[in-house]
Amino acid sequence: LTGWAVHGATDGIEAAGGVLSIRSTLETRGGWLATKAEFDDFELSLEYRLEPEGDSGILLHIPDEGRKGGGDFCEIALLDDDAPMYAWTNEKTWAKTGAVFGVQGPDQFVTRPQGTWHQLNVIASGPDITVSIDGTLVNRVNVDTAPYLATGVRPFLKNRRGHIGLNRPGDAQFRNIRIRRLNERVEVERRGADASQSQSILYVKSDATPGGNGRSWETAFTDLQQALATAREARDGLDAIWIANGTYLPSKSGDPDQSFEFVDGIDIYGGFRGTETRIDQRTPKPSQTILSGDLKRDDGPSFQNRSDNSHRVVSAVLNDHTVIDSITITSGGQSATGPPQKYGAGMIIQGKADLKNVTVTGCQGYSGGGLLIASESLLTVTDCAFRGNAAKLGAGVASHSTDTRFIDCIFEQNSSIDDGGGLALGGYTINPAYSTVLRRCRFLGNTANGEGGGVAIRDHQVEGHSGERSYVFLQCEFRENQSTAGPGTGGSLGGALGVRGNRGAAVELLNCRFERNQSRADNSGAAIAISGKVAATGCLFAENSSADGSVFQISPYSTLILSFCTVASNDCSQQFLLADHATAKLEDAILQWASNSSLTTGSGHAGVTATNCCLSQKLQGQGNISGSPMFVTRGATRFALSDSSPCRNRGTLSQLPDDRFDLDDDKSVKEKLPVDVYGNPRVSSENPSLGAVE
User: Fold this and answer.
1) What is the pTM of this model?
2) Which is it for strands 403-407 and 42-50: parallel, antiparallel or unpaired?
3) d(CA 591, CA 199)
4) How many CA within 13 A on the CB side of residue 151?
5) 492 has pLDDT over 70
6) Which of 13, 257, 324, 638 has the greatest number of CB atoms lying within 10 Å of its CB?
7) d(CA 158, CA 690)
8) Cβ neighbours of residue 106 under 8 Å, at least 6 residues apart?
């Protein structure tokens, strides 16, 4: 408990094995722990775990005079929201997990079972407070302008300076607690080494004068390895490493087994010119801070001259949440076929990190050619690009049983020998619960010789272990991806997405576009191949092709649900290729196919059910119609409906899901899905239209 002070009874507070446990009884409830240091603007990151019926909170800006009674301070609520004893919070959402207590409830609710670890990030900047849980922004509030909704008064709600506390109304555990002060200008000292020793940043600049101590741009290290070695020795006194534009090699001697080993808790920032005193003075995108595995600087096109390259460029084992921002990683790995231990040729991460504006290109390895995210890691990957990488599995990225959020990322022109050209998810796991969410990501021109030219999900849970696992794709684009296995190969191969063995897992697609993807194998799926269950809402499937296959290939005992989707202009033998005991369920959808194609093989359409759909040929089911939906193109919006279309305003409003992922970023998750697949307004005063495009 170094650096913390206990207020109230000390019984039930224990720090062991890196975990801070707080147990409360009737005698100890009402106390709290607080930092000995005071903070103005700050960023707090930690992991927390609540027991069933657990109750805790994060207290902000506690004054020295301490608590006067009741709830005096600004507090971020942590609660077992699903416990019956807290059912009252369903109306008073200002007390739910992620709420600024008494002020504003979260936009999204944490519904995963208690007893699992969650990542919490809180930023306090002036009157503004933002709260993120498991990589998703759940609350943003200005405490100066937002009304106070609870009874009583919090006299220190608007404090701008004070201690940070862990509230103690119930049982909770915390680990990996990290606090970073914000807006502290780094003044460059010019008075020699003694003054620069006080800085919390190390500087690296490839063209600096050799012999520097790394404490300023003027005395910067020329080699990133020097900075990392110094950081490992003095970790507690450092916050970050700033790297100027230039090219940096893991080994000057040509040793391919050396990599840049990032230091736990030391943030990495690139994109500097080498004169900045603040991070916001950078031009970080595109980053010209290049970490390269081309040790002899002799790489040729198409992975030529790679036998002497670094096996891996970056390694990162990060128990403390760490930022990796604005670097380019290239030329890692010697081969895409082995040896198996050479995973993550560009970068391998195990632990907790935020990746921002990272580009990984031209790397090849056995699994995770560009990036390998090791099992049970917790990552947020934002504005990153994975281009031109190769692997046996997961050429762009391989993520094995992790809690990861990909936001605004691009996976382009990656190529796998087996599965997952752009991205491979899942694996064999005993991990009880994890989720992967992709928001506004693009998969462009990736290839795999097996399943999933764009993305492969291979979810195999070890027998005897169970848990909630989910894969969610929000407003993602799959274009011109291919499963390249040739005719005669057969099997469940998906041109854009391949899902296999997801027993107990959920795959959800919301407002995604699948266009011009291809699967060349017999009896395959041009867009998606499914072994498990996939639910798609508001998605467009157009101009995908498979000469002897289908748009959707569905394996035995597997299910595809299409709700408010449009399937049109695909060049396939049939729309659905269903194995025995496979089903496809269509609701408020539009399906159009050419005269030389069919809905399914055979004439009975066994396994396909439709309700309130528009199809090329009439299918039994309530509310179905046949004929042309009368598509038109309006600017960049394809497959829109003409004003006289029979599909316009024909949808069932009650079937349209709630906007629980806040796709339009308006802070409301209780409204109906407000936008179509192109981002156009979805719901007006009338019923929505059939299909994906309003």
Assistant:
1) 0.77
2) unpaired
3) 63
4) 0
5) no
6) 324
7) 48
8) 93, 96, 97, 98, 99, 131, 133, 138, 139
